[in-house]
Amino acid sequence: MSVEQCRWLDFPRIEDQRGNLTFVEAERHIPFAIRRVYYLYDVPPGAARGGHAHKQLEQVLIAASGSFDVMLDDGYANRRVTLDRADRGLYVPRMIWRELDRFSANSICLVMASAYYTEDDYFRDYEEFAGQARTP
Ligand code: TYD
After folding, report:
1. C-alpha closest to that of 92 among 49, 62, 125
2. What is the DSSP letter of 55?
3. In Å, what is the CA distance from 77 to each residue of 5, 98, 115?
4. What per-residue confidence (pLDDT) applies to 2?
5. What is the pLDDT of residues 14-23, one digit of tens each?
6. 78 near 72, Cβ under 8 Å?
7. How large is the average pLDDT for residues 64-89?
8. Which pLDDT score is estimated for 59?
9. Distance, CA 3 to ligand 1 centroid (Å)?
10. Which residue, 120, 128, 122, 113, is CA-closest to 75?
11. Choice from 49, 55, 120 to test ligand 1 binding pocket (greatest atom count within 8 A of CB)
C-alpha cells in the first residue's frame, strides 16, 4: 500500500441559504460498506491523535467542522495533508500509518470505517508496522 493510494473524495454539496448539506452514500461516494462511524471532538490545543496503522480497516476521514492535518506514512514515504472542508473526505486504505494534529478550535474529525472496532486490527508500534509494510 502506498501513500499515493490515499485520495480525496468529493461529496455532493447542496447549497442553501439556510445552510449547506452534504451526504455520503456507502459504496457510491466511498469505496466500502460503512460498518462504523466515530468522531473526534473537544480536541485540546496542541493535541495529536492517531499514531497507528490498521491491518485491514479502510477509513474515510472528514473535517465535519474546522480543520486538522493528517500525516500519512506507508513505511517508505510520508505525506502531510490538511482537511478543512465538510464536503471532502480523505480515503485511507489499510496499512497506512496516520497521525492527526493541528486541530483548530471546535473541530470535528468524522470517520467512516469499513469494520467494527477491534484492537487486533491495530499496529500501534511504528517499527512493527514498517517491518510488515516493507515485507514483499
Ligand atoms: P484510537 O483508535 O487509538 O484513537 P485515535 O486514533 O483517534 O487517536 O482509540 C482510542 C481509544 O478508543 C482506544 O482505547 C480504543 C477506543 N475505541 C473504541 O473503543 N472504538 C472505536 O471505534 C475507536 C475508534 C476507538
Report:
1. 62
2. S
3. 12, 12, 26
4. 95
5. 999 999 999 9
6. yes
7. 98
8. 98
9. 22
10. 128
11. 49
Label the pairing between strands 36-40 and 88-92: unpaired
Task: Please give the backbone phi and psi of residue 121, each rounded to the nearest 5 degrees, phi first.
Answer: -85, -5
Q: Which residues are catalytic?
A: 52
Q: Domains in the chain, start-ordered, CATH in brackets?
A: 3-133 (2.60.120.10)
For residue range 29-61, list pLDDT tens digits in order: 999 999 999 999 999 999 999 999 999 999 999
Grid cell listed for 124: 500501534
C-beta atoms surrounding 123 within 10 Å: 18
The closest of 65, 24, 60 to 41, measured between CA atoms, is 65
Residue 110 is predicted with a pLDDT of: 98
